[in-house]
Amino acid sequence: MTGWEPHAVTTAELVDPAPVAALAALFDNGLPAPRPGDDLPPLWHWVALPRWPVSSELGPDGHPARGSFLPPVDLPRRMFAGGEVTVHRAPRIGETVTRRSIVDSVTEKSGRSGKLVIVVVRTALSGVDGSPLVAERQDLIYREAGATTSGAAPVEPAELARTPFRRTENGWDFATDPTLLMRFSAATANPHRIHYDWPYATRAEGYPGLVVHGPLMSLALAEVLRLDSPGARVTRLAHRNLAPLFCGQPARLRTEPRPGGAALTLVGDAGPRTSLEADYHEEGTLHA
C-alpha cells in the first residue's frame, strides 16, 4: 500500500425519501412507511444516504476499485464485519446533513483461513448547524478467496419468500430470496456481485450461493426493535456479523431484553449469523 494515505471525504447530502420508501416496501412488515419529516429509523441511514459509484470506477467484484478512499488491498473477498452506531439525534427524512468519512486504520493479520486485512472506517453525520446526529464505526474485512464450487446454493428457493418477516411464538422468522437481495442492493446502492451474481459468487469467490448482505441482517435485527418495542428511542447499536447466511437459508430473529436495551441475534440452522446490542429508552423515560 505504498503511496496510499487516508483522507477525509466530506459531503452535504439529502436524507432521501425514495430509498427509504423502497426499504419499507421491501420489508413489508406492517409498520407504516416513514415519511418526509419523520425520524429515520435506526440504521436506515445506510439506505437514505446512498452513494452510487460511476461505472468506470467499479472493480471486478462490483465495488469501487480500491486505492482511492479505501486502501489498495489485493485480497478478493470483502466482508462487512460489523461496527457501532451512536445516535445523538435521528436524522429526519428530507433534511440535508453533512457526512464526513475517513479510514481510521488498516491492519494486516493471518487467520485460520489465511491472510486478512481489517479496515476501519469512521463516519460522522451532522446537521446543517453542525450539531451531531450519528457517529459510526464500520469494520470491513478482506480475505483470500475460498475454494471454488460448481454446486448449487445450499437452498435454491423455488418461489419468492414474500414478506421477509414472519412472526412466530418465539420471535420472528426471516426469509430471503434472490429478488429480495436484488432489491436491497438497489436500495442501498450496493453493486457487490456476491449478492446477485450467482456464477461470480460461486466460481470467482468460492461461496456456495448468493450471500445475504451483512447490513440487511443487521437492519433486520434493528427492525425487530421497531416491531416489538415501538416506543424505543435507540441511542447506540453495536452489530457484528459472525458468519455468512446464504440466500434461501432459513433464519430466526431472537431478542433478549436487558437493562437499558436488548441483545438480538439472527440465527441460522448452523448457528448465530449476526448479533446486535441495542441501548435505548422508552419515550418519556431515560435509563441510567
UniProtKB/TrEMBL annotation:
The lineage of its organism: Bacteria, Bacillati, Actinomycetota, Actinomycetes, Pseudonocardiales. Residues 69-134 form the FAS1-like dehydratase domain. It comes from Amycolatopsis rubida. GO terms for molecular function: (3R)-hydroxyacyl-[acyl-carrier-protein] dehydratase activity. Pfam families: FAS1_DH_region. Gene3D superfamilies: Hotdog Thioesterase. This is 3-methylfumaryl-CoA hydratase. SUPFAM superfamilies: Thioesterase/thiol ester dehydrase-isomerase. InterPro entries: FAS1-like_DH_region, HotDog_dom_sf, Mitochondrial_HTD2.
